[in-house]
Amino acid sequence: MIGNTFVIDAVVHGYNLSPENQRGPAAAELAAALYYGVHRGFSPRGQEQWVLDAQRFFHGDNPDLLAHALFAESQTDVGIYHGVPGYGLFIDGGSPLWVGKEIRTRYPGRILLYGPISPWLPNAVEEVDRLVEEEGIVGIKLYPLDIVDGEIKSWRTDDPELIYPILERAQARGIRSIAIHKAIPFGRVPSDPFRPTDIEGAAAAFPDLTFEIVHGGFAYLEETAMMVARFPNVAINLEGASAYLVNSPRKFAEIIGTLMFWGGANRLIWATGCIALHPRPFVEVFWHFKMPQDLMADYGFPPLTQEVKQATLSGNIARILGLDLQAIQQTIAGDEFAQQAKLAAPWSGTAVALSA
Q1: H-type helices in the chain, by residue range?
Q2: Which domain holds residue 23?
Q3: How many folded domains does the chain comprise?
Q4: 158-169 tens-digit pLDDT
């Protein structure tokens, strides 16, 4: 918690970017240039304690490393683990679900799961059932592009034949939120699949589902803001956008101010993407962040109040998923992280992961 506010990090990953998990040179380029490049480039400038060496980062499929970073080293109370369905790039998708499951088993109440779905799999609809029944997921994670049989393939969220059956089955199984990676392309691939506007048709067709635009505002900010203004079931997952907080706070202010201006304050969802970034400095800067006066005067941005911060850090995602925060607090109150007197040093979990 920070300032007596419960903190839910709504995207956390246990990356397995190791060479033995890569399917080819495109995966290697992605792992090195995008993932690790983001980690080094957006971590607090000049503060190497927040930066993992490449060996530990590429072998981030480590429950000890991730759980310790979240719950022993930062103010995060709960993480939502996202599996990644990038099976054309990485054998296990790049963020294998077993890591989140292991943390959930060890520390009840600390981890929720979003299950990865690739619409290119022949049994994609049935996979929704399996993820609900066997893995206990509370949300679905989709990626708009993958490499299938050596070919770059993409899809649109408003595709009634390929995607709507997945959404229908998810809704029927009680899933309330669909998280879709947008705004950040996978290296040298077409950028159009990462535009968020294809979500509009699905949001209109499935008003009882929430569509989380993951990395919302990192790119295509105006398009994203217009969607927030028109579709009450579109939410902004701040993984990616929150990365600007420490090194480029003005940029973050412009992103979140625009989204709030267009009515999105009750649909902002806190996320850091840990282990992509260590969560602690970003939580702390966000908690003390103030909207610049000139942006409020010149652009009409509303202030970033403590109430909005509290809603962003946990209240909004709790409402979307139907979580009982008081019950979760009671569940985690007796575990080892709740009992520690002070935060541990950054990245002080175990050394190198062993893949399951």
Answers
A1: 25-29, 37-42, 54-58, 63-67, 97-106, 124-130, 164-172, 199-205, 221-230, 244-247, 249-261, 279-288, 293-299, 306-310, 316-321, 325-332, 336-339
A2: 8-335
A3: 1
A4: 999 999 999 999
